[in-house]
Amino acid sequence: MDHARKSHLTFYIFAAIVLAVVLALIAPTFAMKFQIGGEIFLRLLKMMVVPLVMASVMSGIIGLGDVRRLGRPGGFAVVYYLTTTVLAVVVGLVMVNLIDPGVGTVDQETLEALAEKGRAMIPEREEATIGTILEGLVLMLFTDNLILAAVETDLLPLIVFSIIFAGMLTTMGERVHAITAMIVQINDALLSFILLLMKLAPVGIFCLVTARFGEAQAEGAFAEMLSQTGWYVLTVLAGLGFHAFVTLPLILSFFTRRNPFRFMLQMSQAVLTAFSTASSSATLPVTMECAVERGRVSKRSVEFVLPLGATINMDGTALYEAVAAIFIAQAIGIDLTFAQQLMVAVTATLAAIGAAGIPEAGLVTMLIVLNTVGLPVEYVSLILPVDWLLDRFRTAVNVFGDSVGSAVVEKSFAGPEDGGEM
Q: Does residue 417 form part of some domain?
């Protein structure tokens, strides 16, 4: 009965998205009036992120009993993140070179107009190098103000603090039993709150999607964006589709012997929510609930792998940035060498790891990728009309990649408790 109820919820969410898009296309002005409902739902999700990340990571470390047991699964998780991100970039580069979406699609007059628009939008910024990107990634691990990091939903330093603090608790024995018990209880209570929140998901998702699509339709963006960047959209979606339906399922099947498409169905609520919110961080509470309750992934693995994945595992973003950089080069008539494309791959991988799990964060890191290979950053305006739409698809791929990671890393957590049950 419970499984049937969850399947019905997935159907309601999917139906809400379809109905929202239809309403936005037919009556965009009316659709935009639902914005407040979508904003409320999004805020409720975001409200859960910081306490859930800290409680779940601490609960997972405490469950290990000894923080030294985290080394193996931690190493597995990092290797998985890097491998899938690199594979996504490779898929993107192959697709964009096969399809050539930027060749002859935009005339010179339009290019000049877009460049002028881009120059007006993009502030002066220091050019980034691989060294500065790596330095930034290291500094992202630490904060001088934990409260400020929580306010800004800067998850990586919160995760680092949670691992260190919970690891310390595991060494203090009975003296801190009350604290450890409270952390586990808080985590359980937050997961119960998420189950309650999911009952509102179809309504909240409908409001989110119809308001955003209605805004684009009211501005006349749909027809314009497809006429100018239709092949680019097709290339990104083809790359994301290959990664989501071929690369990740093969990895999941090889390492876990799970049916990848059944697992995809089990994670469908999280994937649809990711499409609706365009934020892997905001979707994190739903992703964790789906992985444990429906995917039957070990709670211990979910509590460690998913919060970290929502912060640094951005397969879809990396793929999109690689495709976008080559597309822009093709559109303005610059032929990138193999070495330059390799530089795009490396930079897109590192920049995606540093991308925030918020809507359109990929645009910020896109400027870094363009700078690295000497492409004019003002031409980023070429992809702006469609970024909001592609952002939803790449976020859905990011979230599915995170959930696959939790299943793959699961076996590296030793212990009889890790049977995938609540």
A: no
